[in-house]
Amino acid sequence: MRLDIDRDRLVELVRTQASFGATDDGGLHRLALSDADADARDWLVARLEAADLSVRVDAFGNVFGRREGADPDAAPVLLGSHLDSQPYGGIYDGALGVVAALEVCLTLNDDGVRTRRPIEVVNWTNEEGSRFQPTMQGSGVWAGEFDRDAQYERTDDDGVRVVDELDRIGYRGDHPAEPREPYDSYLELHIEQGPALETAGADVGVVTGIVGLSWGEVTLSGRSDHTGTTPMHLRADALVAAADVTTAIRRLPGAFGERTVATVGSLDVSPNSVNIVPEEVQFTWDVRAPADATVREATDRIEREVTAAATREGVAHEVEQFLTASSVAFPDRTVSTVATAADRLGYEALDLFSGAAHDASHVAGVCDAGMIFAVSDDGRSHTEDEHTSWDDCYSAANVLANAALDLAEPA
Amino acid sequence: MRLDIDRDRLVELVRTQASFGATDDGGLHRLALSDADADARDWLVARLEAADLSVRVDAFGNVFGRREGADPDAAPVLLGSHLDSQPYGGIYDGALGVVAALEVCLTLNDDGVRTRRPIEVVNWTNEEGSRFQPTMQGSGVWAGEFDRDAQYERTDDDGVRVVDELDRIGYRGDHPAEPREPYDSYLELHIEQGPALETAGADVGVVTGIVGLSWGEVTLSGRSDHTGTTPMHLRADALVAAADVTTAIRRLPGAFGERTVATVGSLDVSPNSVNIVPEEVQFTWDVRAPADATVREATDRIEREVTAAATREGVAHEVEQFLTASSVAFPDRTVSTVATAADRLGYEALDLFSGAAHDASHVAGVCDAGMIFAVSDDGRSHTEDEHTSWDDCYSAANVLANAALDLAEPA
Predict the structure, then answer these.
(1) In angstroms, what separates the C-alpha of B82 from chain A's closest C-alpha?
(2) In chain B, which among 276-295 make CB contacts under 8 A with chain A?
(3) Partner residue opposite A355 with nearest CB, options B228, B265, B357
């Protein structure tokens, strides 16, 4: 049995969700638990109910829509992603995976297909971590990685708490924010957010795992002196030391191979004046690699570079690794199911490792997880320019439908 | 004839001026044309009048107090500096030179000394350039370097214009903001703001000139990509290029000798997020050297480094040199007068070039100018920690008094 989703309906679903929080430039500004997020959730719930799915909301706002299976004892297959967006982000990141999961159920309904296992569609709360940190908050609570009550207390830049926003928009649900039964498997369709599929000319990506990562912050403290009157040899210039480390971090991946990436994304200088020697600099690192040992070794090297640069320039240094995530290798069962579905549909599929973390990272701790990547034009994401063609949305959603049917087993 | 200023009165003058805009930590927050600046000006005017000086205010807020000379046709000797401070700066920078000039007149009064030339005390408007750019604004307008009406229109961060603040605090005076007659000479006492005097164990500095400088801003424009999914070789990271240039600028002075300094003081990253490759970086350079040719050559090298780094990293670049100042060599007459006064008083004096620009830079275009430096403890300035001992204040003010008397000629 082969499913063929309704391409026009998928386009309509993507377009309609994109109207909630739409920006003037064709992007999406739909921060977690904002009014726009609430509107998108209300719309999703209505569409799930219209598809005869039974909807429940858990205590962290994760929304589930259940299509019952033939076997009342069978563990369900979970499909989904997230509806929240980056600030002025794109319309595909996350949302495509949620509406594709809904479209899978609509196609099963149209074709009158019963499955042995139940299928559930899920929208995870606050994947992006833009308004409230951390990222992947809802799936992390549900999977038991994060403490629910601690996450309730997280605040945005205005001091507003997660729990109060859940209450305000009516999405602190009655169901416990945890798996209410054993789950069989989870599939998440997501845009690649990188250039690998486009570069390879592939139709769809079969994700074999998710990189491990290390995020940290370095604080360098020197002395603010007058730029005109302080000889070079008497300075303790925090920015000079930070520049040395930035250059070293740029070179790090060369030692570890192509799939390792390292970035200084954020850097702040104080007092940040043309004629004052920089006293304090704070900057972040972001290192990712498929092997956890590589991430650890790269992080060690960064710390050694910080010590060396700070010593050379005579500045004090503090290093804080504030986030680590182990790499995830998806099990053969889900990976091969996705690969087989793509192959049966005649798509050119590329096996690849995800350089970005996803809700699937957390869910992989609960059940067999897998991911399908849709092509990202020019590799762009987290910007209004993010784009995936309708052909590529359709291909990926078709793979999701057929892989989900395999896992849920035609009854 | 040798003058000996009143040390206790000098201490009182320094302390009293420091009460207008005093910070909790013993510093001074007295931005140009603020309420605190107005209070300090009102106090100065009262003290000048109490010293029988005739006070006038020019159309740019520069305050003059005149002690008449015996010869009605003689060109006056001008003494002074500025009362405005850096944000949370120290109590000596600028203010010491103004109150020392007043103290010189009070000492002349006490000793009943008449001079052939008039002596004028001056407080220049907005030397620091912290609230309104550029620096040395009042002396620049007075000396004809800046156009008065254009400077009136300069605004602070809140959009408030200079001219409106002059009116608000009552310091847009009736006198033209220009030399109303030929001036004989100008002496400015200022703290060194560097470590040379303390390092040499000197009591006072004889300033032979002021460095030339070049200030500029570089904008590097790359592409904001996802840090996890974008391979290193496909990135255009503006911060990596900026780090390369920062390191190159740190090394520049090595090619030109000890008195050349080069700094990146300010650097801003956009979007400045841990997991987004930096798209745009703006940073400033500040290069100073005693020889203008060195400043030009160093600036050329910076521009070449920017081009090279931007090309390596695949980012676009723009370079704007927004301020240049030629170096100033003070004439032998004023320099030797200061050196002779220090010598006669038995002080250990060090000849040195100023690494900071001062109002004397502009006044040097109008008449013979010279400067006296007081010792800066630990070379610190533009900070609340700025400190000069009372002994060092006294020594420098005594040199000012005796050099001024030489220039003004006992009648």
Answers:
(1) 18
(2) 276-278, 284, 286, 288
(3) B228
In terms of Cα–Cα distance, which of A60, A62, A18, A61 is closest to A43? Answer: A18
Mutate to test the interface with A, among B86, B274, B283 (most CBs of A within 10 A): B274
The DSSP output letter for B215 is: E
The matching CATH number, chosen from 3.40.630.10, 3.30.420.10, 1.40.20.10, 3.10.129.10, for A7-210+327-408 is 3.40.630.10
Are B267 and A264 in contact (CB < 8 Å)?
no
- In this structure, what are the phi and psi dihedrals at residue A96, rounded to the nearest 5 degrees? -60, -40
What is the CATH number that goes with domain A212-325?
3.30.70.360
In this structure, what are the phi and psi dihedrals at residue B32, rounded to the nearest 5 degrees? -55, 130
Give yes or no for B244 touching A (CB within 8 A). Answer: yes
Nearest-angstrom CA–CA distance, B328 and B53: 31
Domain B7-210+328-408: give its CATH code: 3.40.630.10
CA nearest neighbour of A176 among A136, A149, A153: A149
Tell me the pLDDT of chain A (411 aa) as tens digits: 899 999 999 999 999 999 999 999 999 999 999 999 999 999 999 999 999 999 999 999 999 999 999 998 999 999 999 999 999 999 999 999 999 999 999 999 999 999 999 999 999 999 999 999 999 999 999 999 999 999 999 999 999 999 999 999 999 999 999 999 999 999 999 999 999 999 999 999 999 999 999 999 999 999 988 999 999 999 999 999 999 999 999 999 998 987 899 999 999 999 999 999 999 999 999 999 999 999 999 999 999 999 999 999 999 999 999 989 899 999 999 999 999 999 999 999 999 999 999 999 999 999 999 999 999 999 988 889 999 999 999 999 999 999 999 999 999
The domain ranges of chain B are 7-210+328-408, 212-325
CB A106 within 8 A of CB A44: no
CA A176 from chain centre, in angstroms, equals: 23
Task: For chain A, say whether B358 makes contact (Cβ under 8 Å).
Answer: no
Per CB-CB distance under 8 Å, the chain A contacts of B246 are: 239-240, 243
Give, rounded to a whole angstrom, the gap between the first and last alpha carbons of chain B. 11
| A352–chain B Cβ distance below 8 A for any pair | no
d(C-alpha A102, C-alpha A24), whole Å = 27
Closest B-chain CA to A356: B228
**Rounded Cα distance, A42 and A167, in Å:** 14
Distance CA B121, CA B306 (A): 46
* Distance between CA atoms of residues B8 and B20, nearest Å: 20
Are B265 and A278 within 8 A, CB to CB? yes
Peptide bond into B271 cis (omega under 30): yes
